[in-house]
Design brief:
The chain has 920 residues and is mainly beta. Strands 2-10-9-5-6-7 form a six-stranded mixed β-sheet, with no helix packed on it. Strands 55-56-61-60-58 form a five-stranded mixed β-sheet. Strands 11-12-15-14 form a four-stranded antiparallel β-sheet, with no helix packed on it.
Length: 920
């Protein structure tokens, strides 16, 4: 009975242990991209991923050679290491993610690829099909040829290196080409790399094609839409043809130049001339831009009145085009006389038998107008059957009188005109009327201009008979300089008066010229007003510069004035004390004057004072001033800060100095144990200079200390700023979830926090909290095998349902530079169903143990009632050794006396220890 009870207890405990270690199973899944289209020359990804729960031992990519044979492994994972045995295939990412990158170097990579995963329990595989395409390159070319005197063009459009075979079509003016005009040839070339080149050639006669562009349309699966390529072709244009004839003189002889002209045609027009005679003539051909000219020189004496034919031949003409030009016959109808100063000297020509001239008349010309179409002619004239006077001559077909007309020019004139065999003559009588003297009023002009800083006013009364009298009227108080000039010519008289006035005046002035003459009933007045002189434009500018550590100021006063330069002086404050200055003056072509004066001084000399520029000019009734304030010199501004650098364990102390004239005299005051790692950078913004001094240091070196930045001025004074480096600490890392502390067997302090996760929930978190004054920290957790745990902020995350693999000891560490602390967490996974079964087994085991104790107790009581004490001890000896508590060897020996044996019987106690092992 005892053996059967113990055997039952051991059996129950073994069954519970078996139930505890058994885990749930799952069905593996493969995720794969089955159909892949790859472009030749580019990269493609073969994607295959195992998403099951089994542990994968090997993962391979193979190629299906035929229906029964597979290739050797191309890439995969074996012995926990990735490999690739193909130069165009990369190594996979992991043993469960077999995704690889393949370079499509040729069309031979097209086919079926097998993805295989092997675990201890099963073997999984799936396939992916790769289709290789190649985008064609479009090339066009235009060729021309002449067949049977007809010009043809061929347009070639090629889709090079395409897969699959592309499609090529043509569009002419947006429509497919017509069959009666265009012919198409198709040529297909297969390349060794598996691609194909398709060429289409379109032929057509040039003279029948009016469109200058033809469009090639290529369609291919690799193109998102049909590709339209425009090809420019040559077209013919119908020319405009004309003729022209003009007369020229070559070597003393006259020739007709007959020109046949073709313009705007394409290609060139063939031009020829048809003449009545067969003699060899001089021909000239000229091509200018889009105009062709073919000319011939014909002697005027031989071809007068002849017809000349120009012949034009062009592809756009259905037949040869001719143009006829008739050369005119030359003739002289007569000579007409036209005097230039007669009232009817317009287009109404009339023959004159008598011509009347005025004595003293000058620049007289008698025009001889020839009626006819001769290109040129010779004219000779005589007077009273004798030669012409010395001051009369024929110039350009006109009779011209040099000087004044006198009575000696009166008489009978006869002029003869001739050209080759053609002649004409004209006779006319010239009479001279005596001159009558009458008062001639002067021509009055008044001009004003500026010269050498003065207004020059000029008044003239010209060509008067007799001479005019002139005088000036001026405002009171105006002093003037004036003079008069008198001249005479051919009985007429002129007077000129000049008046000089100041060029610039602060008030408006008027001057009046008075002219007296017998032809005037009253004196004539001409007046001019001198406007106000423009006030000068005054500007003042200030600039500073640093030399040798000292600041210098330069102030410039500029004055833009007219006529004369301004006078510029400088004064400090309200005093009359002037300071030396440099000045320059520039006079421009428009009469304006630019005056500049500048002073240069040490800024500290007049710091905080006012500087005045005083300007004097004739246009100003009183001097004008411009004042500028010299600012006070400011000390440089210091600012310090501490920056924690990214991707570096060193901190950065920054000292910025901003001011005028800031130099390199900037330094950090560091403790004795500091090693300087400083750098200085300077830049300027106008007059302001900025300097930045940085110092790199580890936090442990200056934690809790002060850093001071000092700027030393030129004269020994200093400016400084101090910044404090905080003292950081991390006191502890706490677990916010409910945990059970495990005690240290020596010190009694909790060193491990135990908590349980539910095996039936997703996204379970273990919340952590860092106590301390650090601004931020780095928190990471890892298992006892060294694997890091997924973190979300300050929480450990178990995204999927926990399994027995997630059980174990986890160590979390929070750190901020050299400050750190850790916490250990014992994670257990509990299952409700397994816990219920375990509790049921424990309860049953406990009940059986209690029942066994009761049975043993009843059996002992029965034996004591029916047997003597000694035998009772003998019978219970074996059981006593089994159930008694551990004791010393002496206590195990029975006492020798009866008295002791009775006392010993009362001290016997029984213990049954049940050891139930569990993970809870």
């Amino acid at each position: 009975m005892r053996c059967s009870g113990l055997l039952t207890l051991v059996l129950v405990l073994n069954v519970a242990h078996c139930l505890e270690v058994q885990g749930p199973g799952g069905t593996p899944i493969l995720e794969i991209t089955r159909n892949i289209t790859a472009v030749l020359g580019e990269d493609v990804y073969l994607r295959c991923e195992y998403v099951g729960e089994s542990e994968i031992l090997t993962a391979l990519w193979k190629r299906q050679i035929n229906s029964k044979v597979k290739s050797k492994p191309l890439a995969g994972f074996k012995d926990d290491a990735p490999f690739s045995r193909h130069p165009d295939i990369s190594e996979p990412e992991s043993v469960t993610n077999l995704t690889v990158k393949m370079n499509v170097s040729s069309v031979n990579v097209e086919g079926e690829y097998i993805c295989e995963f092997e675990s201890e329990e099963a073997f999984y595989s799936d396939s992916a099909l790769i289709t290789v395409v190649a985008q064609p390159e479009i090339q066009t070319q235009v060729n021309a040829e002449i067949t049977n005197s007809t010009h043809y063009q061929s347009v070639s459009c090629s889709a090079v290196g395409g897969r699959p075979l592309p499609k090529i079509s043509w569009l002419v003016d947006g429509r497919p080409p017509t069959d009666h005009l265009f012919t198409t040839d198709i040529n297909e070339t297969v390349h060794t790399n598996g691609t194909t080149t398709l060429s289409s050639v379109l032929h057509f006669p040039t003279h029948l094609q009016d469109e200058d562009s033809i469009m090639c349309v290529v369609q291919h699966p690799t193109l998102p839409s049909p590709t339209f390529t425009t090809v420019r072709v040559e077209t013919y244009a119908r020319p405009n043809v004309t003729t022209k004839a003009e007369m020229v003189q070559r070597g003393g002889s006259d020739f007709w130049v007959v020109s046949c002209i073709s313009s705007g045609g394409r290609p060139d027009t063939r031009i020829s001339l048809a003449l009545n005679g067969e003699e060899e003539l001089q021909r000239e051909n000229d091509t200018d831009s889009d105009t062709q000219t073919s000319s011939v020189l014909l002697p005027v004496s031989l071809y007068e009145g002849h017809n000349i034919t120009c012949l034009f031949d062009h592809p756009k003409f259905t037949h040869t085009v001719s143009r006829v030009i008739t050369l005119p016959s030359l003739h002289i109808s007569g000579i007409k006389l036209l005097h230039s100063e007669l009232p009817n000297n317009g287009d109404d020509f009339q023959n004159m038998e008598s011509l009347e001239l005025q004595e003293g008349q000058r620049d007289t010309t008698i025009h001889l107008q020839v009626s006819g179409n001769v290109p040129r002619y010779n004219i000779t004239c005589k007077k009273d059957d004798g030669p012409l006077s010395e001051d009369v001559e024929v110039i350009g077909g006109n009779l011209t009188f040099q000087g004044a007309v006198g009575f000696q020019h009166a008489g009978l004139y006869e002029c003869f005109l001739s050209y080759r065999h053609l002649q004409a003559a004209l006779k006319f009588n010239v009479t001279v009327q005596p001159r009558v003297l009458q008062p001639v009023p002067p021509v009055i002009r008044l001009d004003m201009q500026t010269k050498d800083g003065h207004r020059v006013i000029e008044c003239s009364a010209a060509d008067a008979v007799p001479a005019a009298n002139m005088s000036w009227l001026l405002p009171e108080g105006v002093s003037e300089v004036s003079w008069f000039n008198f001249t005479s010519h051919n009985g007429s008289h002129s007077v000129r008066g000049v008046l000089l006035l100041p060029a610039c005046s602060p008030r408006e002035l008027s001057a009046e010229c008075v002219i007296n003459h017998p032809a005037f009933e009253e004196p004539q007045n001409r007046s001019v007003t001198l406007p106000l002189c423009a006030h000068p434009n005054i500007t003042i500018n200030i600039s500073t510069e640093w030399e040798g550590g000292d600041e210098y100021t330069e102030v410039e006063c500029s004055v833009e004035s007219v006529f004369t330069a301004a006078n510029i002086t400088w004064h400090v404050g309200d005093t009359d004390n002037s300071i030396p200055s440099g000045s320059e003056t520039e006079t421009r072509s428009d009469g304006s004057v630019s005056s500049r004066s500048s002073v240069h001084f040490l800024s500290s000399l007049y710091s905080g004072h006012s500087l005045t520029c005083m300007v004097e000019h004739p246009s100003l009734e009183a001097a004008e001033t411009r004042t500028i304030h010299i600012p006070l010199h400011k000390a440089p501004q210091l600012s310090v800060s501490v920056v924690r650098q990214k991707d570096s364990p060193l901190w950065l102390a920054v000292c910025d100095c901003r001011g005028e004239g800031v130099g390199a005299n900037l330094a950090w005051v560091l403790p004795e144990n500091a090693k300087e790692q400083t750098s200085l950078h300077s830049e300027s913004e106008g007059r302001v200079l900025k300097a930045r001094l940085t110092y790199q240091f580890p936090l442990t070196l200056h934690e809790g200390q002060n850093l001071t930045c000092v700027y030393r001025l030129k004269h020994g004074a200093t400016e400084q700023k101090t910044i404090h480096i905080p003292k950081y600490h991390i006191s502890s890392l706490r677990v916010l979830n409910h945990t059970t502390p495990l005690q240290d067997r020596h010190g009694g302090e909790p060193v491990v926090h135990r908590l349980s996760l539910d095996a039936n929930h997703h996204n379970q978190r273990i919340l952590l909290k860092v106590k301390g004054n650090v601004p931020e920290y780095n928190l990471e957790c890892k298992r006892s095998d060294g694997a890091f745990v997924q973190m979300d902020g300050a929480a450990m995350v178990f995204p999927s349902e926990p399994t027995e693999l997630d059980e174990g000891l986890y160590t979390c560490r929070a750190s901020f530079y050299h400050h750190s602390t850790t916490v250990k967490i014992q994670v257990e996974v509990s299952c409700q169903d397994r816990l219920f079964a375990l509790m049921t087994i424990i309860c049953m085991s406990t009940a059986l143990a209690i029942l066994l104790i009761l049975m043993v107790t009843l059996w002992v009581c029965c034996k004591r009632a029916s047997s003597p004490n000694y035998k009772k001890r003998e019978s219970l000896a074996a059981l006593t050794t089994l159930v008694q508590e551990p004791s010393s060897p002496v206590s195990k020996n029975p006492p020798e006396t009866g008295k002791d044996s009775k006392e010993y019987a009362h001290l016997i106690s029984y213990s049954i220890v049940i050891d139930v092992k569990s993970n809870v």
